[in-house]
Amino acid sequence: MEEKNFKRTTVTAALPYANGGVHIGHLAGVYVPADIYVRYLRLKKQEVMFIGGSDEHGVPVTIRARKEGITTQEVVDRYHSLIKKSFEDFGISFDIYSRTTSAIHHKFASDFFRTLYDKGELEEKTENQFCDEVTGEFLTDRNIVGTCPRCGAEGAYGDQCEKCGATLSPDELINPTNKNNPGHGLVKKPTKNWYLPLGKWQDWLKKWILEGHKEWRPNVYGQCKSWLDMDLQPRAMTRDLDWGIPVPVEGADGKVLYVWFDAPIGYISNTKELCDANPETWGTWQKWWQDPTSRLVHFIGKDNIVFHCIVFPTMLKAHGDYILPDNVPANEFLNLENDKISTSRNWAIWLHEYLVDFPGKQDVLRYVLTANAPETKDNNFTWKDFQERNNSELVGIYGNFVNRALQLTKKYWNGVVPECGELTDYDKQTLEEFKDVKKKVEDLLNVFKFRDAQKEAMNLARIGNKYIADCEPWKVWKTDPKRVETILYISLQLVANLAIAFEPFLPFSSAKLRKMINIDGCDWNQLGATDLLKAGHQLNEPELLFEKIEDETIQHQLDKLAEIKKQNEAAEYKAKEIKPTVSFEDFEKLDIRVGTIKTCEKVKKANKLLKFTIDDGSGTDRTIVSGIAKFYNPEELVGKQVCFIANFAPRKLMGIESQGMILSAENFDGSLSVTRIDREVKPGSQVG
């Protein structure tokens, strides 16, 4: 492959929709790996720009506005601020985080479209598209819902089923309808839009990707190949909507730029915004987007691969003035507790809520998401794994080693780095083990293997933890203090190396560690050195680098998810099909009566059964055994009037003769609720 020599790197992270917060799926798929990579390049003193921003056009924001009964602008203003602050608090170190409703972006995207239009690179086509038969409103794919033809799930969108993940078109949906007006039918009417003829560029795309970028991740390369093996169809670059950037040509009234045309241009317009405000620091925006010595890297999730690898590069190529992405290290999806993360179902861990529930623990989440990074296949986040990795790895290995080394130095030498004496074979072996850490981490980060690179950083802590545990300086001190000097000197060099190695991954704890060992900056070139802390160097007061997370804290998070799942099940509940018709005569055979519960108690050795004594109006109490013990405390039912079937043949349950059946309703979650009478009647009154 041709050797590429770049002078600088432009790094983009997918623009999140400003219709909600950022969740762990976004973080694992895009923002944590992008931030690790950018921090790494900065540490190497390379010229790099990190660009982010909110995607404030498109259907998701308009759906949110309608749902909340507020204007679309109010929605994007609220969520742009929330997302931006969450990223800042979490340490995602964008050089700029802007928005696609900015005046700069509107003009830039409009001019970009006009350039393609004037060059004849767009096709004007009139096609039949779905619209609401009542309002006449043309509907985008996201405003059309129906039954998924693949898995049968209700509420699948016109572009994707969130249940099974299938990519769809509105024509494929079973019984499609307007999401915002479910009772309205759909009809097709002709409408004019402008299309990007992807087929024109198919041969070029095949050569550029399939021949020129075989180094791309297998999941990215494979998805691109599957698209390029088919005939690429023209893709609409405009939409019939009232929210977005107006199409800048005659005859386009009521039409806006398609969000997937305007959003990636936001990377460029945000760069222009940053450069225009700080030309002395960043130079011109053209340097980052039009200079062939600049490298472009897109961090995205797998659902955006086709847009960033096929559609956007085609737009850039058709324009003619831009560099093309050199790599697109897209991740697969992260699931939550073995279920697909879903914004619409609120099945997610939101970053702004995490920062409230776990103050000061940004690095714990960064560590766990990187350790579980879905780099080649979908992966899973569980709260138990989060707790285990924190307690066993961050606390038990990394934190334990650092704390031992610093506390012992404080105890024996008042926090002053001791002299290094004569090295034993074990000392030399330990030093040998970590001398290549820089190359190992770099080799992995250079090819976007963040999960393995973090493992190499943690391996330093494992080496240190084993070394200090094997050497037992707290015991050796009693007989050979000089030997302890050497043990702690080597241990402290490992500690200093950890502060450097973890800087791209865990910036908050690395800063805390640098403060404890009293060094200002972080020089990546020194990673692997064995003399980072000179003898006589004064350390600062040691603190715990990480804290154990208790079971109660994790259970609270699991309870929150359980409640969300219960709410989702309630919202998705559909009544069971009606049983076959029976005659009125058959119904009359049942003798349903009202009884007053006199006593109620649990049946011994039976978890589900309650024993009732019921006044049925006959003058003789009736005993009924019912399987509702999981849903009621016996005392709360005493005195209540319930309906029961009086003419069932008696049968024995746990040795007790049950003389009837209390009627109960089964809820969506399997819980049972006894049927009660809202106004008191005489015991024995018939129902029917």
List the helices and strands and how they pair.
Elements: E1 8-13, H1 24-43, E2 47-54, H2 59-68, H3 72-90, E3 96-99, H4 103-118, E4 123-132, E5 144-147, E6 156-157, E7 174-178, E8 186-196, H5 202-211, H6 218-228, E9 235-236, E10 238-240, E11 255-257, H7 259-277, H8 279-282, H9 285-289, E12 294-299, H10 305-319, E13 334-336, H11 351-357, H12 362-371, E14 379-381, H13 383-413, H14 425-434, H15 437-445, H16 450-471, H17 473-476, H18 481-501, H19 507-517, H20 551-572, H21 584-588, E15 592-602, E16 610-615, E17 622-626, E18 641-645, E19 651-653, E20 656-658, E21 661-662, E22 664-666, E23 672-674, E24 686-687
Parallel strand pairs: 1-2, 1-12, 2-3, 13-14
Antiparallel strand pairs: 4-8, 5-6, 5-7, 8-9, 10-11, 15-16, 15-18, 15-24, 16-17, 18-21, 19-20, 22-23
Specify the CATH homologous superfamily of the largest domain.
HUPs
Number of domains: 4
Largest beta-sheet characterization? 6 strands, antiparallel
CATH class of the largest domain: Alpha Beta
The dominant shape is flat
Low-confidence stretches: none
CATH architecture of the largest domain: 3-Layer(aba) Sandwich
CATH topology of the largest domain: Rossmann fold
SS summary, helix count: 21
- Proportion in helices: 40-55%
What portion of residues belong to β-strands?
Answer: 15-25%
Count the strands?
24
Ends: how far apart? 84 Å
**Class by helix and strand content?**
alpha+beta
How would you state the average pLDDT, rounded? 94
What is the CA-based Rg, rounded?
Answer: 33 Å
